[in-house]
């Protein structure tokens, strides 16, 4: 790897997965510790002025964007200012900016898979913020790669998977939509995709723009929950009758979550040769890490 890689957010689940996969191929990341208040415009300015990487991978706000159950709007506003400053700095220094985004920038009104050309229509404050972050990066930093992921699953205790597993262990009924669709994407698979993109950028390929990636086989929350329950049963004794099929419209998050969030992954395959992997294959190592660290 000729390029110098700076990873913001190396301590979160996606950052750790990226570091693990990079180490297997002798690819290292400079992953600075964030200041006590977290990365903001001023601290990012100092960091990039002092270190001058070739590529900045922005996972600084990964948990808030992809795993948290609720994010304060003021936090999102501060993160927006930081993302805007980061994009300005990358443009000024001619750095490459690699940043994740989400299927949540779409409203889920269409039943066919979303392509990179489809118009954004976010539903809630977090989705609107993600859309605005994308616009800042696209407007301010020409050398960017935005990766929109499907339903990201990681081993963090307070993430989507962790909250679901705790409810399973409590034995409470869990309502899961059986008419909502998306692409489950284990965090290791997302890291694999990011590393593949980085390796091709290292070959001086000017492949800037927005790309979609989600695990193979679009599914419903109910089917994903059943698969997680079966895998978790290898580690714990769990009740198998507590998952309740529910209509999307009757779910508590129906106003915030797209009913149809399937992403078309043709562009990333045609450009980078990245093929979607079956999401079910990633559940075993994910659950193993969760219970080992829990």
From TrEMBL:
Its cofactor is Mg(2+). Residues 3-291 form the RmlD-like substrate binding domain. Binds 1 Mg(2+) ion per monomer. Pathway: Carbohydrate biosynthesis; dTDP-L-rhamnose biosynthesis. It catalyses: dTDP-beta-L-rhamnose + NADP(+) = dTDP-4-dehydro-beta-L-rhamnose + NADPH + H(+). GO terms for cellular component: cytosol. GO terms for molecular function: dTDP-4-dehydrorhamnose reductase activity. InterPro entries: dTDP_dehydrorham_reduct (IPR005913), NAD(P)-bd_dom_sf (IPR036291), RmlD-like-bd (IPR029903). It comes from the Bacteria. Keywords: NADP, Oxidoreductase. Its EC number is 1.1.1.133. It is an enzyme of class 1 (oxidoreductase). GO terms for biological process: dTDP-rhamnose biosynthetic process; O antigen biosynthetic process. PANTHER family: DTDP-4-DEHYDRORHAMNOSE REDUCTASE (PTHR10491), METHIONINE ADENOSYLTRANSFERASE 2 SUBUNIT BETA (PTHR10491:SF4). Belongs to the dTDP-4-dehydrorhamnose reductase family. Catalyzes the reduction of dTDP-6-deoxy-L-lyxo-4-hexulose to yield dTDP-L-rhamnose. This is dTDP-4-dehydrorhamnose reductase. It comes from Stutzerimonas degradans.
């Amino acid at each position: 790897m000729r390029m110098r890689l700076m990873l913001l957010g190396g301590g979160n689940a996606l950052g750790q997965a990226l570091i693990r996969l990079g180490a297997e191929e002798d690819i290292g990341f400079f992953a600075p510790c964030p200041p006590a208040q977290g990365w903001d415009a001023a601290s990012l300015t100092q960091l990039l002025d002092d270190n001058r990487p070739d590529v900045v991978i922005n996972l600084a706000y990964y948990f808030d964007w992809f795993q948290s159950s609720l994010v304060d709007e003021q936090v999102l506003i501060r993160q927006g200012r930081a993302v805007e400053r980061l994009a300005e700095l990358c443009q000024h220094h001619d750095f490459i900016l690699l940043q994740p985004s989400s299927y949540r920038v779409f409203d889920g009104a269409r039943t066919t898979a979303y392509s990179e050309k489809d118009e954004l229509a976010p539903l809630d404050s977090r989705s609107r913020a993600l859309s605005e972050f994308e616009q800042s990066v696209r407007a301010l930093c020409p050398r960017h790669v935005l990766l929109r992921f499907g339903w990201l699953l990681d081993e963090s205790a307070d993430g989507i998977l962790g909250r679901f597993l705790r409810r399973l262990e409590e034995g409470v009924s869990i309502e899961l939509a059986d008419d909502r669709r998306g692409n489950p994407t284990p965090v290791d698979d997302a890291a694999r995709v990011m590393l593949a993109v980085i390796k091709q950028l290292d070959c001086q390929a000017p492949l800037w723009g927005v790309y979609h990636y989600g695990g193979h086989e679009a599914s419903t929350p109910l089917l994903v929950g059943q698969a997680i329950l079966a895998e978790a049963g290898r580690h714990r004794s769990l009740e198998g009758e507590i998952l309740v099929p529910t209509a999307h419209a009757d779910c508590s998050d129906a106003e915030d979550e797209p009913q149809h969030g399937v992403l078309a992954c043709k562009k990333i395959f045609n450009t980078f040769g990245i093929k979607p992997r079956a999401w079910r294959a990633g559940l075993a190592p994910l659950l193993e890490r969760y219970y080992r660290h829990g």
